[in-house]
Amino acid sequence: MSALDLKGVTKTFGGLRAVGGVTFTVPERSIFGLIGPNGAGKTTVFNLVTGVYKPDSGSIRFAGEELSLLKPAQIARRGVARTFQNIRLFGQLTVLENVLVACENRRRSGLFSALLRSPAFFRDEAEMQKRAIELLAIFDLDQLADETSTSLSYGNQRRLEIARAMMLEPKILLLDEPAAGMNYGEAEGLKKQIRWLRDRFDLTVILVEHNMQVVMGVCEAIHVLDHGETIAHGTPEEVRKNPKVLAAYLGEEAPEEGAPAAANEEAAT
Amino acid sequence: MPPSTPGDAARTSRATSPPLLRRILVTLALVGAVVGLELSFDTLVPDAALQQLALFAMVNVVVALSLNVINGMAGQFSIGHAGFVGIGAYTAAIVAGHLHKALGAEDVLFSNSFIVMPVAILAAGAVAALFGFVVGLPSLRLRGDYLAIVTLGFAEIFRLVIATAQTGGNVEGPVAEFLAYLGGPNGYAGPDRNGVPQYAGPFWIFGAVVVAVIIAWRLKFSGWGRALRALREDEIATASVGVDPTRYKVISFVIAATGAGIAGAMLSSMRNGNPTVQPDQFTFAYSFDAITMVILGGSGSVSGAIVGGVFVTFTVKMIEQLQRFESVQALQAAYPALDLNALRMVVYASVLIGLMILRPEGIFGERELLRRKPKQRADQAPPEPLPARTEAEAHPEAETGPLTGKAEK
């Protein structure tokens, strides 16, 4: 079973082809890596899957449903959750409130119930808070529940973003550079957490990441993009040895000595 | 150890329903207070001008509370709130005027206000809500400053259409006739042009404030308010957790417009107030005053909107009222060149500048007065010990074991 199917997905911004005909299938309950040099279109793919952008052509199917026709909030409610490359928390809200916003869509009592403070409102609120605290405990953030999210350390903010995404009870979790700014030990911890999350919540995880320690260590399949196009696909071992991938990351080996190699290397970073 | 245990973390809002008896008692106490104000208002505030000012301040509190929903909580900048107040004022004036006439009553009786005011309030709220929806739906689908421009444009169009309507001579067509009926720049003064009946005394106006405060408070401290505040912080992230920004923004905007419409109903029917509803009551200056009330009090704060509403009303009107004092009149006589009206604006502007320098986040920020202390609930802690952290994270240096390392996969 596949969790997510992309077929010929293309997105251009003005004259720039950010994503050009990308096709891949993410198996259910897998940990899937999406890598490539800067500007390869990885985050654009995430934005297309989550509905922030609409693809110019191609299809994105999740559980048999075409996602490219839906709005971001609808896609999230279908069970596609994400984190952001540059952390996007609700700054002035507390840690607990950040997570609670993510179960707002599953609240059964409506606005009138809230204004009347009906028993249903209190029941929902208590239930949501209980679930939120439990989830925060998993991410070791429950002690910080009443802090505003801006006051958290960088690592805690990253974890809070994942916690918030998990509050949606997603079927697919898209992580955009979760290891950014982490040291070796923290990255090792992240690998364990990703696997643990997948096993505990029956998730499919798609990972955009530059940290090869994490990508190679945790992903079961890897898809490599460069300039918006697919250049490789396979297991970490296959991808690691693929000459195109090496070229994209490190630059082509220059046919002649000297300047061109240096220029290529520059372009790849 | 800091006094934080896993238990005291859940404190966004109280999670249990208060007992029914307490609710009834609180309701009775509030109704009693409002009725008491109606009965004792003349004794408490003997001065007629001060009475009018107090009632106007309360109307402004409702205006500020409603604007706070969309500007403060949801962070969408609406700068045409006076338009919705105006729509409510005209609607209520027409409804109240005709009902008063239908009742055949000469005097404005308190007992009749229970027939007139509910209908006027409902009509004003409904019409303002409708306009709010029409204005909000297209502009709130977009991000950023569109709403500001559209709301400003809407309020000015509303005001100018009425102010520039042809009132004499040959008026043709239903629309033109209706506009002529509204009285153009001279204002609307009831069906027989002898003044809008002024049914809104302290009972109705303070009552409106009480209801508005309760609604604003409950809105803020609910999932809805949380979603609005999240929206203010980051719209894309809010959508990414399943909250549809357009839906929340539009409904909040309609709520804000409804509140403004009801405030308008109070304004046009205000006891001892202006018996005509005039278009120049609803200029951009009034919208600006409303924004000042919200920002001065603290964007997003219900307490702030109340304090801001009272503060701005009194500062704007105070020096006007001061002109009646003998000492000020003597000053004016001694210095005929002194323009008291201009001086008022200087004082007002200075106060605003001073406050914004001293407290840029407003008097309250986003905080509240009388915020209920969260109850500590130790039993909230998850019963099962969840694997809070991975070993790796707890002891990154002691990282060993089969689940780790580069050897795997």
Give me a quick take on this structure.
With 269 residues, chain A is of the alpha/beta class. Chain A is 41% helix and 23% strand. Chain A folds into two domains: 27-42 and 52-79 and 170-269, P-loop containing nucleotide triphosphate hydrolases (Rossmann fold, 3-Layer(aba) Sandwich), CATH 3.40.50.300; 87-169, 3-Layer(aba) Sandwich (Rossmann fold), CATH 3.40.50.
Characterise this structure:
The complex is a heterodimer of chains A (269) and B (409). With 269 residues, chain A is an alpha/beta fold. Chain A is built from eleven helices and ten strands. Chain A folds into two domains: 27-42 and 52-79 and 170-269, P-loop containing nucleotide triphosphate hydrolases (Rossmann fold); 87-169, Rossmann fold (3-Layer(aba) Sandwich), CATH 3.40.50. Chain A starts with a strand and ends with a helix. Chain B is built from 15 helices and no strands. Chain B starts with 19 loop residues before the first helix and ends in a 15-residue tail after the last helix. By secondary structure, chain B is mainly alpha-helical. The radius of gyration of chain B is 26 Å and the shape is globular. In chain B, helix 2 crosses helix 11, helix 2 runs antiparallel to helix 12 and helix 12 (302-322) packs antiparallel against helix 14 (340-358). The chains are: A alpha/beta (269), B mainly alpha (409). At the A-B interface, helix 2, helix 3, helix 4, helix 5 and helix 7 of A face helix 7, helix 8, helix 9 and helix 15 of B.
